[in-house]
Amino acid sequence: ARWVLLLGCVLFVSCTAPSLEQRRAVSVPAMSSPHAHLERAIDRYKKSMRQLSIDARTIVIGGIAAGGINHKYMRATFEEGEAELALVEADLAAASVDPNLAIELCIACWEIDWNGNGRIDHRDRMLFQIEIDADDTPIPEDDPRRKPTFRFDIGDVAWARAFVSFQRAALDFVLAYDWSAVDQVLSDDRGAKNGIVLRLVHPERIADAKQRILEGLDRSDDARRAYLAETDDDREWVPNPRQKNHPMPLPMDQALYDTWEGLLGDLRRLVRGDEGLYVADLILLGDQKVTRAPKGYVDIGSMLAHPHDITLTASDLKKLDRGRDVETALSALLGDHYVASMKASPLPRRLLRMKGEIDRREEGFERKLRYLFWIN
User: What is the distance, to the nearest Å, from the Cα of residue 324 to the centroid of all Cα atoms in its chain?
Assistant: First the structure.
């Protein structure tokens, strides 16, 4: 929930009590301004995602205690969350028309009951503080560097739109399936040992998820290009290689921006089905030992274009976990989404190269990798 960082402010503060007509005359044009749309998007996101977090905890804790999830409540919760995110996206889109848009945000300054326990405690106050500096040295709690003020501008709006799109895609995926089979596991039913089936009840949600992912990748690329075009240097949320004034202690260089661009291309081709994940490359990436190396490909594009029920059996999951007969297990789990031949995505090899640089402890790379995950 990193974009919860973009907390909202009250748009108008007045020392007098204007009439209803005066308020209408002022508020209508004001809410049509890009700045006002951004303020409203921030405030709506904060409120809706905090509520979604509280409801999700209630669903999980209640489900474990009762031996079964309240599926009607869960679906209503996630549907409401997705609908709120759609409104956030609409406001962000309206805000993005102003290339000079900018607001100041002290993310760690607000005192909010983030964990929903009814009080603002130490964890709430520490949640968004910067605890480590560029040298990985702890920052003292009374150091003002822990609570910096960011200048959030048009590139950051694109970043936020990407993050919202990926969140909407995740909610669409959850809403596409009937999760009642999970109750077998929560109730310790012996039938769960024979496997559970997650029924696809809303395939259109998977189509929506695919669209949201592609939109998110496009917005991420918009952010990348906007950051590179910036000529100022003022409390940057994500700096370009020339900018030095950034409260987050994670510098960006051109090589990382190039990697960012490459990853976006890799992911687009996977989502569209132009390339697949070669499982042997994935195993190398995870350092997993297998009895016999698999030769097939995971077709992500097919999963999104032609989704079906998901069947999970204990025996197949054990084969994957222990590296025994991975080929058979993947064929059983993925069905026609596991194919014998297709063009291999360079994504696993790209990540493997990055992992090697971390293992060799090349200077600064681990911090840059963390930033790469942050911006995407």
Answer: 32
The pLDDT, as a whole number, for residue 6 is 36
What does pTM read for this prediction?
0.82
| Res 313: pLDDT | 76
For residues 104 and 119, is the Cβ–Cβ distance under 8 A?
no
Q: What is the pLDDT of residues 226-251, one digit of tens each?
A: 999 999 999 998 899 999 998 888 77
Tell the residue number behind the tokens 């696993």, with chain if given: 348
Please give the single-letter amino acid code of residue 41: A
Rounded CA-CA distance 170/187 in Å is 26
HEC-encoded secondary structure of 31-77: HCCHHHHHHHHHHHHHHHHHHHHHHHHHHHHHHHHHCCCCHHHHHHH
Can you tell me whether residue 153 is helix, strand or coil?
strand
Task: Say how many residues make up the chain.
Answer: 376
Angle between helices 34-66 and 154-176 (to 10 degrees): 30
Interatomic CA distance for residues 181 and 187, integer angstroms: 10
First-to-last alpha carbon distance for the chain, in angstroms, is 12
Structure tokens at 360: 């060799």
CA distance 312 to 64: 20
DSSP 138: B
Tell the residue number behind the tokens 């590296």, with chain if given. 323
In the structure encoding, which two tokens stand for residue 99, read together? 């290339």
Phi, psi of 331 (to 5 degrees): -60, -40
Tokens of 255: 């090589």
C-alpha to C-alpha distance for 6 and 150, rounded to whole angstroms: 10
Residue 229's closest CA among 333, 153, 337, 297? 153
What does each C-alpha distance from 319 to 286, 313, 327 come to in angstroms? 16, 10, 9
> Tokens 């054990």 — which residue?
318
Q: What is the pLDDT of residues 296-351, one digit of tens each?
A: 999 999 999 999 998 887 776 666 655 567 788 888 888 999 999 999 999 988 88
Distances (CA, A) of 308 to 22, 197, 201, 333: 55, 11, 9, 11
Nearest to 175 by CA among 148, 150, 198, 142: 198
- What are 267's two structure tokens? 């992911």
